[in-house]
């Protein structure tokens, strides 16, 4: 294929922008032809000044769209200097082109719609590239997450440039990729370990949107809910996290029944990705998944969380701590360790006290729960502690039984009153256990109501 500069300028003048692609896999022949012409002309290779002058001479859009000229110059610089054998030597050219491309989309006064599709395809190219280079940051001499942070700053400028469209005509094309931009930014913020930056994106998404949430592609809706759920989880908003993760899971489950079987491996991976956070979130709310279904997707995950659920529902603090210790590395990586360490012990104690109430209080129709009975149960639950204390067992002591009971009462997990002088907890005299120990889910929802700002996600 012999593609010349003259042909490139002719295509661009006619509004054909497809040639402006730096992806060697799909546009390698065009890039190679242009590289040959740019480096082997009779007067010597084109330097940057000659490229700028050459582009200005074309008078694209009457020479008024300066950023478009800069985009073409950056594309020609890439074609001239790219090293197809070295990603590192070419990355400055790649990121410079991507920044120039995005800058073109900041001003709605020019015909940017044809560039939106190019931006989307290059975003899919640039983010994995930045991720790969950042992985080797120590060997290539960059800071950790330096390139992904740069990409996020470029995309963030595009997000901030999008204004609420009030016209009667169809909105600009970049409004159609608003949710796509939101998801890409939030994904990067999680990758660079700065999830709190997501707050600005979540808060400003709706004011910028001109469409109902359900009008965006289903794939992007699912991704948004998944990321929003993870964000809530990191901020200890368990109810909101569960609702969003569960909605993402159900949407993806519906999709899985309608797609071509060839897409099932990818869907399976995404379902597992959601369940990785949905299952522990559900356990903190006293809810269990269908482990048979989880086992059909990922046996290891099913066995792992089934074991955790067993310890929690058996009221075994010793078993819970052992499980957390065994999976510490993975939980740290997913930012779940501290959350489970904080929330699950009280849920576990709740099941322990529930068993004691059921076997001692309601069975004897007494309405009284002596401290010594609770202490004995807690000793069995906590087990014998030996050696150095760790983050898992430092606060757990059978002698803290009154603190446990009072905390359960304050959380609404136990309805009763403690009388320290009598060393007794008095509960309602009834055979209906739920009158004494309300369901965890009800209490959590009551204590931590849903964010009303998310209601628009379900509007149609």
From TrEMBL:
SMART domains, per the entry: PAM
A GO molecular-function annotation: RNA binding
Stored InterPro entries: Csn12-like
GO cellular component, one term: transcription export complex 2
GO biological process: poly(A)+ mRNA export from nucleus; post-transcriptional tethering of RNA polymerase II gene DNA at nuclear periphery; transcription elongation by RNA polymerase II
Organism domain of life: Eukaryota
Protein name: BN860_10088g1_1
